[in-house]
Write a structure and sequence with these properties.
The complex is a heterodimer.
Chain A lengths: L2 H4 L13 H26 L3 H24 L2 H28 L6 H28 L5 H4 L5 H7 L4 H25 L6 H11 L1
Chain B lengths: L6 E3 L2 H24 L2 H5 L3 H21 L1 H5 E5 L3 E6 L3 E7 L5 E7 L1 E7 L8 H6 L3 E5 L2 H11 L10
Antiparallel strand pairs in B: 1-2, 2-3, 3-4, 5-6, 6-7
Helix pairs in contact in B: 1-3
Classes of the chains: A mainly alpha, B alpha+beta.
């Protein structure tokens, strides 16, 4: 009996096992979109643009890796990995953002923890959404892993993970501005109402 | 004659994930505790310190320990069949080629081969992962070559989908 007699390919086969390239491309896209999102949020808030881009890119890259890994794991593992990577990605990005804007001596770690916690919640939500998308539309990812296509074609096709990538980027942008707005309104007394309202406008 | 390597990690993404998590967490803690000016840590409230320690040290460490089985199990493929175990001692699982009922290729971030003693029709990805009579292995080219070689079958014929 041939293996092909009882093999039932669910999707495309990746003979070389190089689909990781697609993941790396998505990580890059996650960083890029996270960076652009952070850049826009910083521009709207009047913060340092470089800090916004850097912190967004760091968060986007870490969260993208965490999400990619979590989707390949059993559900419990996916929940843990997406939560931890979401927290660490959000907190790291916020630390760099604070350090760039306020100096390395003025980093509020509790603020970073708060941003990380919200980031973890959103990343967990992303995991849930993507997990559902994976289960219901498996063909979405075939063009990334089909190695009969050219490398550039496959990398381009990783844009078909736009659901994931845009979700990461938008998630970070939302988290960043929303969290800042909340923290500015509730914790930092020195922040004026005007500044807080600018943050909320940016979130909207 | 060079001996053919026939043992591989069964799940390289889980291995990468496990190592990534613990490295990321520990590096994050080193960053905030040792590299950032200490004044930042000293003025952080206790609750903030505990959150940071839990998320960067405790949680990744627990995940690393509990993911050992998935992340660091190895598979061995030979003439008789395919075997999977952790450190050659724990969580042993084996399927002879003659016992194989079905082999399914599944795409989930990466490409996986599920080798089963039971029909897999209708099973979800998570059910496949958990089933005691199913072995999951990453679909690396070398592993596929070994499966083709030892099962004396032509896997390429299934590539037309």
């Amino acid at each position: 009996m041939l293996i092909s007699d009882y093999i039932t390919p669910v999707m495309y086969l990746d003979p070389s096992g190089e689909s990781f390239i697609g993941i790396l491309a998505t990580i890059g896209l996650g960083a890029l979109i996270g960076g652009i999102s952070g850049f826009i949020a910083a521009a709207i808030n009047g913060d340092d643009l470089g800090a916004g881009f850097l912190s967004g890119a760091i968060s986007g890259a870490i969260i993208a890796v965490g999400l990619a890994i979590s989707l390949a794991l059993p559900a419990a593992g996916g929940v843990i990995v997406s939560s931890i990577s979401g927290f660490l990605g959000g907190a790291t990005g916020d630390i760099f953002n604070q350090a760039w804007n306020n100096g390395w001596d003025n980093v509020d770690l509790l603020h970073a923890a708060g941003v990380g916690a919200l980031s973890a919640v959103f990343t967990l939500g992303s995991f849930g959404c993507l997990n559902h998308i994976y289960r219901t539309t498996p063909s979405l990812f075939g063009s990334i892993t089909n190695s009969s296509l050219s490398l550039f074609s496959r990398m381009g096709s990783s844009l078909s993970m736009s659901v994931a990538t845009f979700y990461i980027g938008l998630t970070y942008g939302t988290i960043s501005t929303f969290t800042n707005a909340i923290f500015n309104l509730t914790i930092q007394d020195s922040v004026s109402d005007d500044e807080a309202s600018i943050d909320i406008d940016a979130y909207c | 004659m060079k001996k053919l390597k026939n043992t591989y990690f069964a799940n390289h993404i889980a291995m990468f994930g496990s190592i990534f998590m613990i490295l990321l967490g520990y590096l994050f803690f080193i960053f905030i505790y040792f590299l950032l000016p200490r004044v930042n840590w000293d003025r952080t409230p206790e609750i903030g310190k505990w959150i940071m320690v839990f998320m960067s040290i405790i949680a990744p460490s627990l995940f690393f320990i509990f993911s050992l089985k998935i992340a660091f199990s190895k598979i061995t493929i030979d003439e008789s069949g395919i075997r999977k175990s952790l450190f050659k001692r724990y969580f042993k699982k084996s399927i002879l080629w003659s016992e194989v009922k079905e082999m399914k290729i599944y795409n989930r971030v990466d490409t996986w081969i599920f080798i089963s003693k039971v029909p897999m029709e209708g099973m979800t990805y998570y059910q496949l992962l958990k089933h005691k009579d199913i072995i999951q292995v990453t679909a690396l080219q070398k592993i596929r070559d070994l499966i083709i070689k030892y099962s004396k079958s032509d896997l390429e014929e299934s590539n037309s989908v």
